Protein backbone atom coordinates (compact mmCIF):
# COMPACT_ATOMS: atom_id res chain seq x y z
CA UNK A 1 0.00 0.00 0.00
CA UNK A 2 1.12 3.49 -0.85
CA UNK A 3 0.54 5.34 2.43
CA UNK A 4 1.79 8.75 1.39
CA UNK A 5 3.75 10.81 -1.12
CA UNK A 6 5.28 14.25 -1.51
CA UNK A 7 6.29 16.34 -4.50
CA UNK A 8 8.55 19.37 -4.54
CA UNK A 9 9.35 21.88 -7.32
CA UNK A 10 7.36 20.05 -10.01
CA UNK A 11 5.16 22.39 -12.09
CA UNK A 12 2.70 24.16 -9.76
CA UNK A 13 3.51 21.71 -6.96
CA UNK A 14 6.01 23.86 -5.10
CA UNK A 15 5.58 21.71 -2.02
CA UNK A 16 2.74 19.22 -1.70
CA UNK A 17 2.56 16.22 0.58
CA UNK A 18 -0.31 13.87 1.28
CA UNK A 19 -0.22 10.94 3.66
CA UNK A 20 2.41 9.34 5.85
CA UNK A 21 6.19 9.79 5.49
CA UNK A 22 9.29 9.59 7.66
CA UNK A 23 9.73 13.31 8.53
CA UNK A 24 13.54 13.09 8.77
CA UNK A 25 13.70 11.78 5.19
CA UNK A 26 11.29 14.23 3.53
CA UNK A 27 12.97 16.41 0.90
CA UNK A 28 10.82 19.46 1.53
CA UNK A 29 11.42 22.73 3.38
CA UNK A 30 8.73 22.05 5.97
CA UNK A 31 8.13 18.36 6.80
CA UNK A 32 5.10 19.37 8.86
CA UNK A 33 3.44 20.37 5.60
CA UNK A 34 3.18 16.69 4.66
CA UNK A 35 -0.30 15.95 5.93
CA UNK A 36 0.05 12.86 8.16
CA UNK A 37 -2.88 10.67 7.12
CA UNK A 38 -2.48 7.23 5.57
CA UNK A 39 -3.90 7.02 2.09
CA UNK A 40 -6.88 4.73 1.72
CA UNK A 41 -7.82 2.38 -1.07
CA UNK A 42 -9.19 5.34 -3.03
CA UNK A 43 -7.67 8.83 -2.88
CA UNK A 44 -9.60 11.56 -4.64
CA UNK A 45 -8.17 14.95 -5.60
CA UNK A 46 -10.58 17.75 -6.41
CA UNK A 47 -10.66 21.54 -6.51
CA UNK A 48 -10.23 24.47 -8.85
CA UNK A 49 -9.14 23.95 -12.43
CA UNK A 50 -5.44 24.66 -12.77
CA UNK A 51 -4.75 24.07 -9.07
CA UNK A 52 -2.35 21.16 -9.60
CA UNK A 53 -4.51 18.03 -9.42
CA UNK A 54 -3.46 16.65 -12.79
CA UNK A 55 0.14 17.63 -12.06
CA UNK A 56 0.10 15.16 -9.19
CA UNK A 57 -0.79 12.35 -11.57
CA UNK A 58 1.84 13.57 -14.04
CA UNK A 59 4.40 13.52 -11.22
CA UNK A 60 3.69 9.80 -10.77
CA UNK A 61 4.02 9.31 -14.53
CA UNK A 62 7.25 11.35 -14.52
CA UNK A 63 8.86 9.14 -11.86
CA UNK A 64 7.70 6.06 -13.75
CA UNK A 65 9.36 7.43 -16.91
CA UNK A 66 12.55 8.08 -14.92
CA UNK A 67 12.45 4.51 -13.65
CA UNK A 68 11.83 2.95 -17.07
CA UNK A 69 13.71 5.26 -19.44
CA UNK A 70 15.88 7.71 -17.44
CA UNK A 71 15.67 11.38 -16.48
CA UNK A 72 16.58 12.73 -19.94
CA UNK A 73 13.58 10.99 -21.49
CA UNK A 74 11.22 11.94 -18.63
CA UNK A 75 12.19 15.63 -18.79
CA UNK A 76 12.36 15.81 -22.58
CA UNK A 77 8.90 14.30 -22.91
CA UNK A 78 7.58 17.30 -20.96
CA UNK A 79 9.55 20.03 -22.71
CA UNK A 80 12.73 19.88 -20.65
CA UNK A 81 13.68 20.39 -17.02
CA UNK A 82 13.06 24.16 -17.12
CA UNK A 83 9.54 23.60 -18.40
CA UNK A 84 8.50 21.47 -15.40
CA UNK A 85 10.58 23.01 -12.61
CA UNK A 86 8.47 25.26 -10.34
CA UNK A 87 9.02 28.91 -11.27
CA UNK A 88 11.04 30.62 -8.55
CA UNK A 89 11.67 27.36 -6.73
CA UNK A 90 14.74 26.63 -4.65
CA UNK A 91 16.68 23.39 -4.49
CA UNK A 92 16.20 20.27 -6.56
CA UNK A 93 13.05 18.65 -7.86
CA UNK A 94 12.19 15.83 -5.49
CA UNK A 95 9.62 13.08 -5.06
CA UNK A 96 8.96 10.71 -2.22
CA UNK A 97 6.79 7.64 -1.69
CA UNK A 98 5.96 5.95 1.60
CA UNK A 99 5.04 2.33 1.11
CA UNK A 100 4.06 -0.67 3.19
CA UNK A 101 3.68 -4.22 1.94
CA UNK A 102 0.05 -5.12 2.55
CA UNK A 103 -0.38 -6.85 5.90
CA UNK A 104 3.26 -6.31 6.97
CA UNK A 105 4.63 -4.20 9.83
CA UNK A 106 7.75 -2.97 8.00
CA UNK A 107 7.31 0.27 6.03
CA UNK A 108 9.61 2.02 3.57
CA UNK A 109 10.15 5.55 2.30
CA UNK A 110 11.82 6.05 -1.06
CA UNK A 111 12.94 9.54 -2.09
CA UNK A 112 14.65 10.79 -5.25
CA UNK A 113 16.06 14.24 -5.93
CA UNK A 114 16.72 15.38 -9.53
CA UNK A 115 19.07 18.29 -10.19
CA UNK A 116 19.93 20.42 -13.18
CA UNK A 117 22.97 22.49 -14.12
CA UNK A 118 22.44 25.34 -16.59
CA UNK A 119 23.24 24.36 -20.18
CA UNK A 120 23.62 20.74 -19.06
CA UNK A 121 21.29 17.77 -18.87
CA UNK A 122 19.35 16.83 -15.70
CA UNK A 123 20.83 14.22 -13.40
CA UNK A 124 19.89 12.20 -10.33
CA UNK A 125 21.25 14.14 -7.37
CA UNK A 126 20.42 11.61 -4.68
CA UNK A 127 18.24 8.66 -3.77
CA UNK A 128 17.32 7.33 -0.37
CA UNK A 129 15.56 4.18 0.75
CA UNK A 130 14.69 4.07 4.45
CA UNK A 131 12.88 1.47 6.54
CA UNK A 132 10.85 1.58 9.69
CA UNK A 133 10.24 -1.42 11.90
CA UNK A 134 8.18 -0.39 14.90
CA UNK A 135 8.93 3.19 15.96
CA UNK A 136 12.51 3.38 14.68
CA UNK A 137 13.35 4.38 11.13
CA UNK A 138 16.76 4.06 9.48
CA UNK A 139 18.26 4.29 5.98
CA UNK A 140 19.41 1.10 4.27
CA UNK A 141 20.40 2.38 0.84
CA UNK A 142 21.68 5.77 -0.21
CA UNK A 143 22.98 7.12 -3.48
CA UNK A 144 24.54 10.56 -3.80
CA UNK A 145 26.14 12.29 -6.75
CA UNK A 146 29.44 12.87 -4.98
CA UNK A 147 29.75 9.25 -3.83
CA UNK A 148 28.46 7.29 -6.79
CA UNK A 149 27.90 4.26 -4.57
CA UNK A 150 24.91 2.61 -3.02
CA UNK A 151 25.37 1.49 0.55
CA UNK A 152 23.40 -1.39 2.02
CA UNK A 153 22.73 -1.64 5.73
CA UNK A 154 21.53 -4.62 7.69
CA UNK A 155 18.78 -4.03 10.31
CA UNK A 156 21.33 -3.76 13.14
CA UNK A 157 23.75 -1.49 11.25
CA UNK A 158 23.96 2.29 11.01
CA UNK A 159 25.56 4.63 8.53
CA UNK A 160 28.64 4.89 10.78
CA UNK A 161 29.37 1.18 10.43
CA UNK A 162 32.78 0.50 8.87
CA UNK A 163 31.84 -2.70 7.08
CA UNK A 164 28.92 -1.61 4.94
CA UNK A 165 28.41 -3.36 1.65
CA UNK A 166 28.99 -0.96 -1.25
CA UNK A 167 27.89 -1.29 -4.84
CA UNK A 168 29.60 0.89 -7.43
CA UNK A 169 27.06 3.05 -9.20
CA UNK A 170 28.05 5.64 -11.80
CA UNK A 171 24.86 6.03 -13.83
CA UNK A 172 23.28 9.36 -12.84
CA UNK A 173 20.62 9.19 -15.55
CA UNK A 174 18.62 6.18 -14.30
CA UNK A 175 17.17 5.48 -10.90
CA UNK A 176 19.34 3.30 -8.72
CA UNK A 177 16.18 1.58 -7.52
CA UNK A 178 15.75 0.17 -11.04
CA UNK A 179 19.30 -1.20 -11.10
CA UNK A 180 19.44 -2.83 -7.68
CA UNK A 181 18.71 -6.44 -7.01
CA UNK A 182 16.05 -7.21 -4.42
CA UNK A 183 17.45 -7.33 -0.91
CA UNK A 184 16.61 -10.65 0.83
CA UNK A 185 16.22 -9.00 4.24
CA UNK A 186 13.73 -6.44 2.93
CA UNK A 187 10.93 -8.08 0.92
CA UNK A 188 9.05 -4.78 0.66
CA UNK A 189 11.82 -3.68 -1.73
CA UNK A 190 10.43 -6.01 -4.41
CA UNK A 191 6.92 -4.68 -3.83
CA UNK A 192 8.17 -1.12 -4.19
CA UNK A 193 9.83 -1.98 -7.50
CA UNK A 194 6.60 -3.65 -8.62
CA UNK A 195 4.74 -0.43 -7.82
CA UNK A 196 7.11 1.63 -9.98
CA UNK A 197 7.09 -0.85 -12.85
CA UNK A 198 3.38 -1.57 -13.01
CA UNK A 199 1.30 1.35 -11.85
CA UNK A 200 -1.24 2.34 -14.46
CA UNK A 201 -1.35 5.98 -15.56
CA UNK A 202 -4.28 7.51 -17.40
CA UNK A 203 -3.81 9.61 -20.52
CA UNK A 204 -6.96 9.09 -22.55
CA UNK A 205 -7.08 10.40 -26.14
CA UNK A 206 -9.97 9.21 -28.23
CA UNK A 207 -8.18 9.92 -31.53
CA UNK A 208 -5.58 7.26 -30.74
CA UNK A 209 -8.12 4.49 -31.41
CA UNK A 210 -7.10 4.63 -35.05
CA UNK A 211 -3.69 3.55 -36.34
CA UNK A 212 -3.32 0.65 -33.94
CA UNK A 213 0.03 -1.00 -33.33
CA UNK A 214 -0.22 -4.40 -31.70
CA UNK A 215 3.39 -5.50 -32.02
CA UNK A 216 3.74 -5.35 -28.24
CA UNK A 217 1.37 -5.88 -25.37
CA UNK A 218 1.62 -4.43 -21.89
CA UNK A 219 -0.62 -4.98 -18.89
CA UNK A 220 -1.75 -1.94 -16.94
CA UNK A 221 -0.91 0.61 -19.62
CA UNK A 222 -2.80 3.86 -19.93
CA UNK A 223 -6.21 3.72 -21.63
CA UNK A 224 -5.40 5.57 -24.83
CA UNK A 225 -6.94 3.91 -27.85
CA UNK A 226 -3.76 2.18 -29.05
CA UNK A 227 -2.83 1.19 -25.51
CA UNK A 228 -6.34 -0.14 -25.02
CA UNK A 229 -5.68 -2.61 -27.81
CA UNK A 230 -2.35 -3.54 -26.24
CA UNK A 231 -4.26 -4.18 -23.04
CA UNK A 232 -6.75 -6.36 -24.93
CA UNK A 233 -3.83 -8.27 -26.43
CA UNK A 234 -2.53 -8.77 -22.88
CA UNK A 235 -5.87 -10.46 -22.08
CA UNK A 236 -5.47 -12.65 -25.16
CA UNK A 237 -1.97 -13.70 -24.12
CA UNK A 238 -3.08 -14.33 -20.54
CA UNK A 239 -6.42 -16.10 -21.04
CA UNK A 240 -6.10 -17.53 -24.55
CA UNK A 241 -9.42 -18.78 -25.92
CA UNK A 242 -11.13 -17.62 -22.72
CA UNK A 243 -10.13 -13.95 -23.23
CA UNK A 244 -13.52 -12.92 -24.62
CA UNK A 245 -15.36 -14.60 -21.75
CA UNK A 246 -13.06 -12.94 -19.19
CA UNK A 247 -13.56 -9.49 -20.72
CA UNK A 248 -17.33 -9.96 -20.77
CA UNK A 249 -17.27 -11.10 -17.14
CA UNK A 250 -15.47 -7.90 -16.15
CA UNK A 251 -17.52 -5.41 -18.14
CA UNK A 252 -20.95 -6.94 -17.56
CA UNK A 253 -23.23 -4.29 -16.17
CA UNK A 254 -21.93 -1.34 -18.19
CA UNK A 255 -25.05 0.60 -19.19
CA UNK A 256 -26.37 -0.22 -22.67
CA UNK A 257 -23.64 -2.80 -23.30
CA UNK A 258 -24.85 -6.32 -24.11
CA UNK A 259 -21.54 -8.04 -24.82
CA UNK A 260 -18.08 -7.67 -26.30
CA UNK A 261 -17.02 -9.68 -29.36
CA UNK A 262 -13.33 -10.49 -29.74
CA UNK A 263 -12.11 -11.95 -33.03
CA UNK A 264 -8.55 -13.27 -32.62
CA UNK A 265 -8.15 -14.80 -36.07
CA UNK A 266 -5.31 -12.34 -36.60
CA UNK A 267 -3.51 -12.39 -33.25
CA UNK A 268 -1.45 -9.30 -34.13
CA UNK A 269 -4.55 -7.27 -34.88
CA UNK A 270 -7.61 -8.75 -33.15
CA UNK A 271 -10.97 -7.18 -33.88
CA UNK A 272 -12.87 -5.72 -30.95
CA UNK A 273 -16.59 -5.08 -31.39
CA UNK A 274 -19.45 -4.18 -29.07
CA UNK A 275 -23.05 -5.40 -29.09
CA UNK A 276 -25.19 -2.53 -27.78
CA UNK A 277 -28.82 -2.61 -26.66
CA UNK A 278 -31.25 -2.29 -29.57
CA UNK A 279 -28.56 -2.89 -32.23
CA UNK A 280 -28.15 -6.43 -33.53
CA UNK A 281 -24.94 -5.91 -35.52
CA UNK A 282 -21.70 -5.64 -33.47
CA UNK A 283 -20.14 -2.17 -33.66
CA UNK A 284 -16.35 -1.87 -34.16
CA UNK A 285 -14.64 -0.07 -31.28
CA UNK A 286 -13.43 2.67 -33.65
CA UNK A 287 -17.09 3.61 -34.27
CA UNK A 288 -18.09 3.87 -30.62
CA UNK A 289 -18.55 7.04 -28.60
CA UNK A 290 -15.72 8.33 -26.44
CA UNK A 291 -17.83 7.79 -23.32
CA UNK A 292 -18.32 4.07 -24.03
CA UNK A 293 -14.63 3.52 -24.76
CA UNK A 294 -13.62 5.44 -21.63
CA UNK A 295 -15.94 3.50 -19.35
CA UNK A 296 -14.90 0.20 -20.93
CA UNK A 297 -11.21 1.06 -20.35
CA UNK A 298 -11.79 2.09 -16.74
CA UNK A 299 -13.83 -0.98 -15.86
CA UNK A 300 -11.19 -3.30 -17.35
CA UNK A 301 -8.52 -1.72 -15.16
CA UNK A 302 -10.57 -1.63 -11.99
CA UNK A 303 -12.11 -5.08 -12.21
CA UNK A 304 -9.51 -7.37 -13.76
CA UNK A 305 -8.38 -10.31 -11.65
CA UNK A 306 -4.84 -8.97 -11.09
CA UNK A 307 -5.02 -5.18 -11.45
CA UNK A 308 -2.09 -2.78 -11.38
CA UNK A 309 -0.83 -2.02 -7.84
CA UNK A 310 -1.77 1.64 -8.33
CA UNK A 311 -4.29 2.97 -10.86
CA UNK A 312 -4.50 6.69 -11.64
CA UNK A 313 -7.46 8.28 -13.45
CA UNK A 314 -7.51 11.93 -14.52
CA UNK A 315 -11.04 13.38 -14.59
CA UNK A 316 -12.65 10.07 -15.61
CA UNK A 317 -16.06 11.75 -15.72
CA UNK A 318 -15.16 13.62 -18.93
CA UNK A 319 -17.75 12.86 -21.63
CA UNK A 320 -19.65 10.49 -19.31
CA UNK A 321 -23.35 11.11 -18.79
CA UNK A 322 -25.02 10.84 -15.38
CA UNK A 323 -25.79 7.14 -15.81
CA UNK A 324 -22.16 6.35 -16.61
CA UNK A 325 -20.94 8.49 -13.70
CA UNK A 326 -23.27 6.69 -11.29
CA UNK A 327 -22.04 3.33 -12.59
CA UNK A 328 -18.40 4.40 -12.09
CA UNK A 329 -19.25 5.75 -8.64
CA UNK A 330 -20.64 2.35 -7.63
CA UNK A 331 -17.35 0.74 -8.71
CA UNK A 332 -15.45 3.19 -6.50
CA UNK A 333 -17.62 2.35 -3.50
CA UNK A 334 -16.79 -1.35 -3.66
CA UNK A 335 -13.15 -0.95 -4.69
CA UNK A 336 -11.08 -2.37 -1.81
CA UNK A 337 -7.34 -2.97 -1.53
CA UNK A 338 -7.83 -6.17 0.47
CA UNK A 339 -9.96 -7.62 -2.33
CA UNK A 340 -8.33 -6.11 -5.40
CA UNK A 341 -4.73 -5.79 -4.18
CA UNK A 342 -4.69 -2.33 -5.73
CA UNK A 343 -5.18 1.34 -4.94
CA UNK A 344 -6.83 4.12 -6.90
CA UNK A 345 -5.73 7.76 -7.22
CA UNK A 346 -7.99 9.99 -9.25
CA UNK A 347 -8.82 13.61 -9.95
CA UNK A 348 -12.38 14.72 -10.48
CA UNK A 349 -14.83 17.58 -10.41
CA UNK A 350 -17.77 15.22 -10.39
CA UNK A 351 -20.06 15.32 -7.37
CA UNK A 352 -21.18 11.76 -8.09
CA UNK A 353 -17.63 10.41 -7.81
CA UNK A 354 -16.73 12.57 -4.82
CA UNK A 355 -19.85 11.54 -2.95
CA UNK A 356 -18.79 7.91 -3.43
CA UNK A 357 -15.57 8.54 -1.51
CA UNK A 358 -15.24 9.05 2.25
CA UNK A 359 -14.27 12.69 3.03
CA UNK A 360 -11.13 11.55 4.86
CA UNK A 361 -9.85 10.32 1.48
CA UNK A 362 -10.78 13.49 -0.43
CA UNK A 363 -8.19 16.27 -0.80
CA UNK A 364 -9.21 19.72 -2.02
CA UNK A 365 -6.70 21.68 -4.09
CA UNK A 366 -6.44 25.43 -4.30
CA UNK A 367 -3.79 28.02 -5.17
CA UNK A 368 -1.85 30.47 -3.01
CA UNK A 369 -1.12 34.04 -4.08
CA UNK A 370 1.94 32.92 -6.03
CA UNK A 371 -0.11 30.35 -7.97
CA UNK A 372 1.30 27.27 -6.24
CA UNK A 373 -0.90 24.40 -5.10
CA UNK A 374 -2.17 24.17 -1.53
CA UNK A 375 -4.04 21.14 -0.24
CA UNK A 376 -6.66 20.59 2.47
CA UNK A 377 -8.33 17.37 3.53
CA UNK A 378 -12.09 17.51 3.07
CA UNK A 379 -12.76 15.85 6.44
CA UNK A 380 -10.93 18.71 8.20
CA UNK A 381 -13.29 21.26 6.66
CA UNK A 382 -16.44 19.55 7.88
CA UNK A 383 -18.08 20.88 11.06
CA UNK A 384 -17.96 18.36 13.92
CA UNK A 385 -21.20 16.51 14.73
CA UNK A 386 -23.37 17.84 17.55
CA UNK A 387 -22.82 14.61 19.45
CA UNK A 388 -19.04 14.13 19.88
CA UNK A 389 -19.57 10.36 20.07
CA UNK A 390 -20.93 10.28 16.52
CA UNK A 391 -18.54 9.78 13.58
CA UNK A 392 -18.14 12.42 10.91
CA UNK A 393 -20.57 10.75 8.56
CA UNK A 394 -22.27 13.04 6.08
CA UNK A 395 -25.52 12.89 4.25
CA UNK A 396 -25.47 11.87 0.63
CA UNK A 397 -24.35 14.60 -1.77
CA UNK A 398 -22.08 16.21 0.86
CA UNK A 399 -19.72 17.27 -1.92
CA UNK A 400 -22.44 18.98 -3.90
CA UNK A 401 -23.86 20.86 -0.96
CA UNK A 402 -20.66 21.87 0.85
CA UNK A 403 -17.87 22.17 -1.69
CA UNK A 404 -19.55 23.04 -4.97
CA UNK A 405 -18.50 26.67 -4.59
CA UNK A 406 -14.85 25.61 -4.57
CA UNK A 407 -14.93 24.23 -8.10
Feature tags:
single chain, alpha+beta, six-stranded antiparallel sheet, 12 helices
Secondary structure elements and pairings:
Elements: E1 2-10, E2 13-19, E3 42-47, H1 53-69, H2 71-76, H3 81-84, E4 93-100, E5 107-115, E6 123-133, E7 136-144, E8 149-152, E9 165-168, H4 176-179, H5 188-198, H6 225-239, H7 243-251, E10 257-263, E11 271-276, E12 283-284, H8 290-303, E13 310-314, H9 322-334, H10 337-340, E14 343-347, H11 351-355, E15 362-367, E16 373-377, H12 398-403
Parallel strand pairs: 3-14, 3-15, 13-14
Antiparallel strand pairs: 1-2, 1-4, 4-5, 5-6, 6-7, 8-9, 10-11, 11-12, 15-16
Helix pairs in contact: 6-7
Tell me about this structure.
With 407 residues, this protein is an alpha+beta fold. Helices cover 27% and strands 25% of the residues. The protein is globular and about 60 Å long. It has 2 domains: 2-40 and 50-200 and 361-389, no CATH class; 201-304, no CATH class. The chain has a 6-stranded antiparallel β-sheet with strand order 2-1-4-5-6-7. Strands 13-14-3-15-16 form a 5-stranded mixed β-sheet, with helices on both faces. The longest helix is centred in the first third of the chain and has 17 residues, at 53-69. Mean pLDDT is 77; it is low at 157-164, 210-215 and 393-397. The protein contains 12 helices and 16 strands.
Amino acid sequence: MLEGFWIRNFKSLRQVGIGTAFPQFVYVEDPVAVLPFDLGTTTLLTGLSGSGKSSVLDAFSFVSDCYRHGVDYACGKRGGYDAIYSHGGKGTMSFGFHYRQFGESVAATYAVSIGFVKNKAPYIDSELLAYRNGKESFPIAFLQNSQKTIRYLAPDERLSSSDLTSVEFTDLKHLGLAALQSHPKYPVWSSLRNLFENWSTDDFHIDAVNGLDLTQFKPHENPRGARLYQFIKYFIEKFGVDAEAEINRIVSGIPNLVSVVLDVANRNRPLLSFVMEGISIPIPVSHLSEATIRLFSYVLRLEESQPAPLITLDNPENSLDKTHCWFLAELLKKFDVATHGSQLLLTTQSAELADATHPQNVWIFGCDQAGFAVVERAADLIPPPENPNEPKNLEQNWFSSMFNDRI
